[in-house]
Structure formats: structure tokens, C-alpha cells
Amino acid sequence: MTTSDKLRGFADKWGFSQDKTEEGFLIDNDRTKQCLSDLTALISEHYYPKEFLLWTGENCQYYPDTNEWMYFESPMTQQYFKGTDELFNYWKENEQ
């Protein structure tokens, strides 16, 4: 399921409904709180820690045309990673 599909599902599930009262329209606050909780969880799925981002800035170069990261192990040695998730997994296992 793509992020776009997830967001579309989120919107379908949590589209805000309002109840009409004599005073006007009121939003269901319980649904609003649950909506914000679900949205936070969705956003955090693709969260990278600050330490990882700092490490990539100091040790890596990104090539957007190929979606590859080059990590400089030493001046003469580089490793290539396909996508940020692959680089993040390497960082978690070896550098953290």
C-alpha cells in the first residue's frame, strides 16, 4: 500500500462529520482526538532520527537520479545503498 493509498484511506475513515444543533454545527471531539492520533502514527512511519540525518550529512552523498546514497567509509572506500531505508538499516546495524 502506497503512502497515497494510506492517506486516502485515512481521509475516508476520518472525514469530519458535524452534528447540527440549535446553536450551529459541532465537531465530535472524540473523533477529532482519535483522528490526530492516527495521523501522528501515519507520519511517524517514515520518520528518521535526528542522529541519522546528521550522520548522512557528514558521511554520505545522495544521487536523486538513481535514488542511491554513497557512504564514505574511508577516503578510498565507498558503499552504495539503494534508497534511504537501506541506508538507514545499515546505520542502525553498524553506526548507531
Rounded mean pLDDT score = 79
Major sheet description = 3 strands, antiparallel
Q: What separation lies between the terminal Cα atoms?
A: 29 Å
Q: Overall 3D geometry?
A: elongated
Beta percentage is: 25-35%
H-E string: HEEHHEEEH
Helix share bin: 40-55%
Query: Any idea what the radius of gyration is?
Result: 21 Å
Ranges where pLDDT stays below 50 over 5 or more residues in a row are none
Strand arrangement in the largest pleated sheet: 3-4-5
Count the strands?
Answer: 5
Number of helices: 4
Structural class: alpha+beta
Secondary structure layout plus pairing:
Blueprint: H1 3-14, E1 18-21, E2 24-27, H2 29-44, H3 50-59, E3 60-63, E4 68-74, E5 77-82, H4 84-95
Antiparallel strand pairs: 1-2, 3-4, 4-5
Helix pairs in contact: 1-2
Structural description of this entry:
This protein has a domain at 50-95. It has a three-stranded antiparallel beta sheet. Strands 1-2 form a two-stranded antiparallel ribbon. Helix 1 (3-14) packs antiparallel against helix 2 (29-44). A hairpin with a 2-residue loop joins strand 1 (18-21) and strand 2 (24-27). It has helices at 3-14, 29-44, 50-59, 84-95; strands at 18-21, 24-27, 60-63, 68-74, 77-82. Helix content is 52%, strand content 26%. It has 96 residues and is of the alpha+beta class. It has four helices and five strands.
